[in-house]
Structure formats: structure tokens, C-alpha cells
Amino acid sequence: MPGHPSASERRQSVRTGVVWDGLQGVLDAPVAFQERQAHIIDIGGGTGGFAVPLAELGHRVRVIDPSPDALASLDRRAAERGVGDRVTGQQGDLSDLSEVVEADSADLVLCHGVLEVVDDPAAALQQISSVLRSGGHLSLLVAQRHAAVVARAMAGHFQAARELLDGDAQASGRGHRFTQQEVSGLLADAGFEVTLVQAVRVFADLVPGSLLDLEPGAAASLVELERAVASRPEYLPLATQLHVLARA
Ligand SMILES: C[S@@+](CC[C@H](N)C(=O)[O-])C[C@H]1O[C@@H](n2cnc3c(N)ncnc32)[C@H](O)[C@@H]1O
After folding, report:
1. Rounded to whole angstroms, what are the CA distances from 234 to 40, 83, 96, 198, 199?
2. Candidates 20, 65, 242: which one to mutate for ligand 1, based on the most atoms within 8 Å of Cβ?
3. Whose CA is nearest to atom 27 of ligand 1?
């Protein structure tokens, strides 16, 4: 309920506030989507944490995800929020995106928390590029490697931290983690122009959840702090995730 967010909604806003700011910039840009719905693909969109609010803003969102359970939850959530007619769920995989989405058709593709788990991130970005119309946007959210090294070391997983330090941890079965330079290189190779890079969850994962639950106003203050550092390059290596906006 607006004005009375639950504890889980407060924590969610701390984790995603900066990402929403970036997305809002794309959707509100002059001559963007004021007068027409955007056609949005949310690849690996899961239960609709982004897709459903985007539909509530008036856009058409197609979620493509391999998990039938996630898609069932998505349908329920979209129906509960009254946007079932603007949200479509479909089983599919990022690696085969161009087989289920028409070429050059999407205004915006969300790829949040998925590039980490595919075998070939470079090929996956090519797939996304092929379904975006010229000038369309990619919103990419990926796990950032330096913070992951620190998190593993702090948890006492020193060997895992050491393995991650010098490169890809896919070999250890934990998925890819990316530096900003790696993401920028992959995007350039796939023909994208990077328009924004943001640090996401610089502090959020370090703050005890109980503090956000018990201290009045703490979650809102933390969201403001996350916003204040999101575009400062010196905080990028500390961020749990990188949010990158790029134009096709
Ligand atoms: C970490 S969740 C992120 C969910 C959502 N994008 C978000 O940010 O809230 C990862 C999602 O990717 C989906 N997924 C896993 N492997 C995938 C693949 N190869 N292609 C597309 N989606 C995949 C999972 O089913 C899951 O819904």
C-alpha cells in the first residue's frame, strides 16, 4: 500500500531504487514513450518484479523465462495488480531469444540477473541486440566481481575468493561475475553504445536487515545514500551489481 510499505517492500526498494531511476530515464526521455506503449522484453524476468510495475506504467511487457513456476507466479501477480492484459509470460531461454522474439522489434530489453548464468555471455548479448530495434535500449544488471571477491572472503570462503579474483568463476559453478571493463567490452563487441553505468547495492547488502525493519526512516535514507553514490565511479568496484544502460 503506498505510504505504508511492508518490510519486504522496503528492502526491495533499497535493492532496486537505483535501477528504477535508470529505467525511468529511458522511459521518460523526450520523444520516448509518452504517447505510446513501449514494447518491452524481460528476459529471465522471473516472477515479474520489474515486468508488473512496468505494465502498471502502461507498457506491454513480455517475460521470457525457462521456469514454469516463475511464469505461473508472474501470471498471478499480473492478474492481482490488474495488468494481466499487458503482461505475457512465455517459456524460453536467453541463448535462443531470437527464436521466440521477432528481429528488430523491441524498444527495451531487460536482462537482469541472467547474463551470469548463461554459458556464453557474448553470444547472449548478440541475441539481445538482434531483437532490439535500432536505437532501442538494453537494461543490463549483472553481478560485479570485486564485491563478490570481498563477500566470499568475509564469509570465510578464501579459496573461492582467490579463484574469483583473477577471472571467471564459471568453472567453480557459481556463474559469471563481471568487472565494469568486461561488461563494457562485451557490450561494445555486440554493437551497443553504453549510455549509463550505475553502482547498485553498494551498502544494501552490508546493512543488517533488522536495522531497516526497526529504525523508522532507515530504508528511505539508505535508498537516498545508494542514489548519491550510484554514478560515482569510485564506488563501482564496491557495488554488488552493475546496472548498465546501452543503446542498440
Ligand atoms: C536472479 S533471477 C532474476 C529475476 C528477475 N530478472 C529480477 O531481476 O528480479 C534469474 C532468473 O533468470 C531465469 N533464468 C535462468 N537461466 C536462464 C536462461 N538461460 N535464460 C533466461 N532466463 C534464465 C531464472 O528462471 C530466474 O527467473
Report:
1. 32, 40, 36, 11, 9
2. 65
3. 46
According to CATH, the superfamily of the domain at 7-144+179-247 is Vaccinia Virus protein VP39 (3.40.50.150)
Q: Is 43 in the pocket of ligand 1 (CB under 6 A)?
A: yes
Asked if residues 63 and 94 have their Cβ atoms less than 8 Å apart, the reply is: no
For the CA of 110, the closest atom of ligand 1 is: 6
238's CB contacts (< 8 A; 6+ apart) are 146, 147, 150, 199, 202
Residue extents of the structural domains in the chain: 7-144+179-247, 146-175
Question: pTM for the whole thing?
Answer: 0.94
Tens-place pLDDT, residues 1-52: 445 778 788 888 889 999 999 999 999 876 567 667 899 999 999 999 999 9
Q: What is the mean pLDDT of the chain?
A: 92
43 pairs with which residues across the strands?
64, 111
